[in-house]
Amino acid sequence: MTWQENYQVWQDYQQLDPALAQQLAEMAGDQEALENAFTKPMAFGTAGMRGLIGPGIGQMNLYTVGAAAEGLARFMDTLDDATKQRGVAISFDSRYQSREFAHHSAQVLGAHGIPSYVFDDIRPTPELSFAVRHLHTYAGIMITASHNPKQYNGFKIYGPDGGQMPPIEADKITEYVRGIENMFTVATVAEPKLRQQGLVHIVGEDLDEDYLAGVKAVSVNPKLIDEVGKDMTLIYTPLHGTGRVIGYRALKDAGYDHFTMVKEQAIADPEFPTVEHPNPEFPEAFNMAIKLGKQEGADLLVATDPDADRLGAAVRMPNGDYQLMTGNQIASVLLNYILKAKQDTGQLPADGMVVKSIVSTELATKIAEHYDVKMTNVLTGFKYIAEQIKLAEENHDHTFLFGFEESFGYLINPFVRDKDAIQSTILLAEVAAYYKQQGLTLYDGIQQLYKEYGYFKEKTTAKEFGGVDGADKMAAIMKSLRENRPTEFAGVNVETVDDYQTQVATHADGTTEKLTLPSSNVLKYWLSDGTWIAVRPSGTEPKIKFYIGTNAQTEDEATTKLNQFETALSDWVKD
User: Fold this and answer.
1) pTM of the model
2) What fold does the segment set 3-203 form as a domain?
3) Options 98, 146, 357, 407, the catalytic residue
4) What would the DSSP string read from start to end of 431-464?
5) Known catalytic residue: 146?
6) Ranges for the Alpha-D-phosphohexomutase alpha/beta/alpha domain (predicted)?
7) How far apart are CA 98 and CA 93, in angstroms?
8) Residue 427: other Cβ atoms inside 10 A
């Protein structure tokens, strides 16, 4: 059907939700908005879906959410009854319509006789992952658009292990979603009736206590908190999101008495009024925290994104200013602290394993090698880290110690199977206490790592491709990059090209070898000086991401190299 035909179907539907009907009327005459909303259905993949809130088959609304829940329900109908009756845990963030989408999903599942366990209020994504495992549900639904701007929302599906739904099952769910001919006919049952039938259960504090107990256990050296941490000054901002519910309690439970929340950003507000982007990767997200930090002389500033799975931090510099840490730096200091502390206390297992994405820093690899710990690389997406944890448990061959992605996602203890900013906040504060005990700051700690292992610098850039034809443009660019393979960047030879789509690594001499990771639309170039460059379309946003990782003996040398490669990459892509 054309976008005009899809648009007409929505106009003709007499029972359209009144709010959506009003928005639809306001869109009349805006052809670009109508094309974006009605040309293509929302992309539904292994991580679910994410998009702008509004009417249409290509946006987040009650009907597209209902169709997603219906796809999950139809898949669960194919399972044995005992598995189906394990039900689905459902959580949601502070965004517009998140609560409505969560309860609507429960009503769709209820029409299939599938029980739901819905949180009484906003909760973080990692707690939803925990809930799936703790309640032994078959699946989980998280209504969130993570760190996207306020106009977005999303629908993520989790599997029985608390990680994002495995690819085979996710593909089957996707088929069911795409097989729905008319999303307006998806059946629901009123929630009061479902409550009477025992098909909707409201959960909250009962799970909070158990999740927080797990978070408290991530502490490697509780005595350090008692001796130093309790007097350390911290600033925490949940950026108007779910972290305000759990983050405050987690810090208190851990023993950090001198911390302050940025009160203006502790309000769960879907407008995110104090930040343009509610994303701890963006420096402006820390503006209010920095102002408060300077007033109180804070040792550490931490920020979590709206669904509290990503953590950003800023460290106090020698001159009293604050500098944002990169995701790779946060991961490196966390990893070094974990491994050193376990080694010092004789608790470092001989079969220890760390897992990171292929676009994350190689500094972590150097740290793992120093402690004789296995480093496992996986594709981008925390589901792949969760998969490695599950395999290690099933095969009894490795003990998981830490997992991370450069995009500010970390996991310490695997009672959760997704990145967990609450866990990470507690441990990063402990690392800050560790350095404070030595008269140092986290900034000093990072510098120590660089002096020991070399100066590693990384940078991620992106080109956006919005609109109806954005996906086609990105596909054309990736095709062009494969057909016009570079042999050098900034005068440095390319030694190997890893093409994860074809699963083949091609060396400069023409020889090839098979890559063992799953097929994915990613290109990674290994250069003769140890630099690597990766290119991949984002799985959640209409953009292509470009990653650069380099290293040198001094910070100036590493920075110069990074800038040179960034310029070369920009020129190459432009050509």
Assistant:
1) 0.94
2) Alpha-D-Glucose-1,6-Bisphosphate; Chain A, domain 3 (3.40.120)
3) 146
4) HHHHHHHTT--HHHHHHHHHHHH-EEEEEEEEEE
5) yes
6) 42-181, 227-314, 327-453
7) 6
8) 23
